[in-house]
């Protein structure tokens, strides 16, 4: 299970990032038609707005699959790290973040500034907010857990710094959101790699 979780943590961000890049290029004109500004704030959120386009089902599937892979990743960390209140809380929060990611499959509204949001748009926005209130505390707690384990200690400060930098870029949106995505996806890959390495040492 730990190796499966490590694989999920390493492959998931690559797949998700690949979908974002390719689908953005394919649906670029569509997104611009909705009023999306690649380097600024707009009336349509990216990447959520990609689910509204002609290949929107790909984005919807990416939300579901990535959320599921985050779930596996969280379970792997729960099993690999010493069982403490802090590690369990961190893993549970990451599980909830994965569930919230899956909830983003509920399609966003075309215009996120409209006061008359649809039910599926409200669900999408609620899940987006849920990612923020679960993922960042999870990372901060994981940083504390890593600090007390020799094999993981080198990732402690890196985890804290990533979480601290991710908070404002998550909230600001626009071009800053690219920084959030890149930072969190990179953190997931690096932590998953460490999980795989420690599993090779102890699971043989």
Query: Helicity range of the residues?
Result: over 70%
Strand percentage: under 5%
How many separate domains?
A: 1
Distance between the termini: 13 Å
How many helices? The count is 7
Overall mean pLDDT stands at 91
What's the total number of strands? 0
Structural class label: mainly alpha
Largest sheet: none
Q: What's the order of the H and E elements?
A: HHHHHHH
What are the SSEs and their pairings?
Blueprint: H1 2-26, H2 28-33, H3 56-80, H4 85-103, H5 119-147, H6 156-172, H7 176-202
Helix pairs in contact: 1-3, 1-7, 3-4, 3-7, 4-5, 5-6, 6-7
Describe this structure in words.
The chain starts with a helix and ends with a helix. With 204 residues, the chain is mainly α. It has one domain (2-202). The protein contains seven helices and no strands. The model has no long low-confidence stretch (mean pLDDT 91).
Structure at a glance:
The protein has 204 residues and is mainly alpha-helical. The protein is built from seven helices and no strands.
List keywords for this structure.
0% strand, 204 residues, mainly alpha, 73% helix
